[in-house]
Amino acid sequence: MPTPTDTVPLWLDDGAYAPRPPLAEDLRADVCVVGGGVAGLACARRLATHGLRAVVLEARTVAGGASGRNGGFLLAGAAAFHVDARERFGRDAARSLYARTLRAQDEVYALAGELGVAAAVRRTGSLRVATSEDEAEHVRRHVAALAEDGFPGELVGPDDLPPVLRRSGLLAAHTAHDGALQPAVWVRALARAAEAAGVRLFEGTPVPAPVPAPGEGPVAAAGGSVRAAHVVVAADGALPALVPEVAGAVRARRLHMLATAPLPERVLEQPSYLRYGHEYVQQTADGRIAAGGFSDLDAGASWTDREAGAPAVWARVERWLRDDLGVAAPVTHRWVGVVGYASDGLPRAGDVHGRPGLHALGGYSGTGNLVGFLAGQALADRIALGEHDGLSVFASP
Ligand SMILES: Cc1cc2nc3c(=O)[nH]c(=O)nc-3n(C[C@H](O)[C@H](O)[C@H](O)COP(=O)(O)OP(=O)(O)OC[C@H]3O[C@@H](n4cnc5c(N)ncnc54)[C@H](O)[C@@H]3O)c2cc1C
Predict the structure, then answer these.
(1) What is the pLDDT of residues 101-153, one digit of tens each?
(2) 233 by DSSP, 3-state: which?
(3) How far does residue 366's CA lie from ligand 1's centre (Å)?
(4) Does 86 fall in a domain?
(5) Cβ 58 under 6 angstroms from ligand 1
(6) How many angstroms does the Cα of residue 298 sit away from the middle of ligand 1?
(7) How far is the centre of ligand 1, averaged over its atoms, from the C-alpha of 67 (Å)?
(8) Into how many domains does the chain fold?
(9) I need a labelling partner for 194 at 20 to 30 A (CA). Which of 48, 159, 342, 376 fits?
(10) Residue with the nearest Cα to atom 16 of ligand 1?
(11) Does the C-beta of 298 come closer than 6 Å to ligand 1?
(12) How far is the CA of 365 from the centre of ligand 1 (A)?
C-alpha cells in the first residue's frame, strides 16, 4: 500500500467536531476577516471587543490550517533567536518585539484559563538544545543577550538535560515562561470566544484569490458575500496567493510532523527544539510524542502551498525519534502544514500598500502561535482605534 501523503494531524483527530455552516447570504459588516487560524480569530475577537461587527470566512474549519497542524510550542520572541534578532533588526526593535510577545504569552495563559482550556495551554517552559559545539556557543550568546535585555533564560548543563535529549544535546537554554499547546483545542476555544463577543463565523467558505479591497467589491464566496469597510487576510501560508502584493516577501512552505502512541512514562516535560530549531518535540499531556523537522532535508520541494507530505521526510523524523531520542512507540499520525516564510524574517501585519482598507497578517516563518495572536490583536487595535504603535514591531505587508 502506498504511504499516504496527506493525513490527519493528531490535534484535529477527535472525530467529534461539528463544523459551522458556510456563508449563505449577503452580509454587511465593519470588518471581513479571511482565515480562521489563531491570527484571524485573535483579530476578529479583538475587533468585536472594540464594538465592531466582524465576520470570519474560513475555507475549512477553524484551526484547519497551520494553527491546528503545528508543533504546539508557545515561545516568546519571533522566528529569529533574540541574539540574532538584535543584530538583524537592531537592539531596540528586537527588545520591543520580545517584550510584547512575553506580555502576549501571559495574556494567552490567562485567556485559556478563562475559556476553560488551561489543560491545552500549559506553562511548561521550553528547552532550546544545542547539538554541536558551534550551536552551544550560540546558545550561550543567546542566554547572555536575553539577560542583557532583562529577559529570563538560563543555561542547562548536559547532566541536567532530560535523558532522552542527552544523546544529541550538549547544553540547553531554558525559558520557564514558554508553553506547550494542544493548538486545535486552544484555537477552537478562541473561535468560541470570538463568537461570544459577537463575531459571525462561517466555515467551509473558501474565498477566491485575489481577495478584493473594500473599494473593489464585496468579498464573495460560493454561497454569499460580505461587504465591509475593512478586509483582513489572515492566511499565513495562503497569504501570497490571496494577496499577491506580499508574494515577493512571503513564501509558502510545508513542514512535516508526526505523532506516536502514548508512552507508558513521561520522558519530556518541556517542549524542546534542537539544531537551531530545525527539529522540535513535545510530549503531550496524554504521553504521546509529537515531533517535526528536517525541513532543510525537504529542500526546494518544501516551498509549496500544497498540503501534502514527502514520505522520506517523515521517515527521517521517525529515525531521529528512534535513534537519537530512543523513542520506540509506534507512529500513529503523520501530517504537514503550510506556513508563510518572510524573506527578511519579520512577520507582516498592517495595510496593503495601494489598496485602501485591505490588511494582511502572516509570514511568521514557522513561529506564529504567539506572534500571530499578537499581530492579530495589534491589527484590530489599528483598525478600531487608528493606533499604530502595536504594529511598529512588524513589517508592513
Ligand atoms: C508543522 C508545523 C509546525 C509548527 N510549529 C510551530 C510551533 O511549535 N510554534 C509556533 O509558534 N508556530 C509553529 N508553526 C507555525 C504556526 O502554526 C503558524 O505560524 C500559525 O498557525 C499561523 O496562524 P495563522 O492564523 O496566520 O494561519 P493559519 O492557521 O494557517 O490560518 C489561516 C486559515 O486561512 C484559511 N484559508 C486559506 N485560504 C483561504 C481562502 N481562500 N478562503 C478562506 N480561508 C482560507 C486556512 O484554511 C486556514 O485555516 C508551525 C507550523 C507547522 C505547519
Answers:
(1) 999 999 999 999 999 999 999 999 999 999 999 999 999 999 999 999 999 99
(2) strand
(3) 9
(4) no
(5) yes
(6) 19
(7) 4
(8) 1
(9) 342
(10) 368
(11) no
(12) 10
105 contacts 42 by C-beta, under 8 angstroms: no
Question: Distance (Å, rounded) from C-alpha 228 to C-alpha 357?
Answer: 9
In a domain, 38, yes or no: yes
| Sequence letter at residue 155 | L
The Å distance, Cα 94 to ligand 1 centre, comes to 23
pLDDT value at residue 15 = 78
Provide the strand spans (E) within the chain. Answer: 26-34, 54-57, 73-74, 121-122, 126-130, 154-156, 171-175, 179-181, 200-202, 219-221, 224-234, 250-260, 272-274, 279-283, 289-292, 331-342, 348-351, 358-362
The dihedrals phi and psi of 236, each to the nearest 5 degrees, come to 40, -95
Pocket of ligand 1 contains residue 39 by CB under 6 Å: yes
pLDDT of residue 144: 98
Spell out the long-range contacts of 371-374 with Cβ–Cβ below 8 A and sequence spacing 24 or more: 371/78, 371/101, 371/347, 372/37, 372/38, 372/39, 372/42, 372/67, 372/234, 372/236, 372/347, 373/38, 373/39, 373/42, 373/104, 373/107, 373/108, 374/42, 374/100, 374/101, 374/104
- Angle formed at CA 25 by CA 24 and CA 29, multiple of 5 degrees: 120
Per the confidence metrics, is the pTM higher than 0.90?
yes
What pLDDT is recorded for position 5?
63
Q: Which atom of ligand 1 is nearest to the CA of 271?
A: 8
Å from CA of 136 to ligand 1 middle? 30
- Classify residue 331: in a domain, yes or no: no
With a cut of 70, say whether residue 3 has pLDDT above it. Answer: no
Ligand 1 atom, smallest distance to 369 CA: 11
How much is the average pLDDT of 207-220? 98
State the Cα–Cα distance between residues 173 and 165, nearest whole angstrom. Answer: 13
- Confidence at residue 294, expressed as pLDDT on a 0 to 100 scale: 96
CA 110 / ligand 1 centre spacing (Å) = 22
Say what the pLDDT of residue 1 is. Answer: 44
Q: Is the CB of 190 under 6 A from ligand 1?
A: no
Residue nearest to atom 18 of ligand 1 (CA): 368
Residue with CA at minimum distance from ligand 1 atom 50: 70
In a domain, 49, yes or no: yes
Residue 244's CATH number: 3.50.50.60
- Tell me the residue range of the domain where 215 lies: 13-69+184-249+345-391
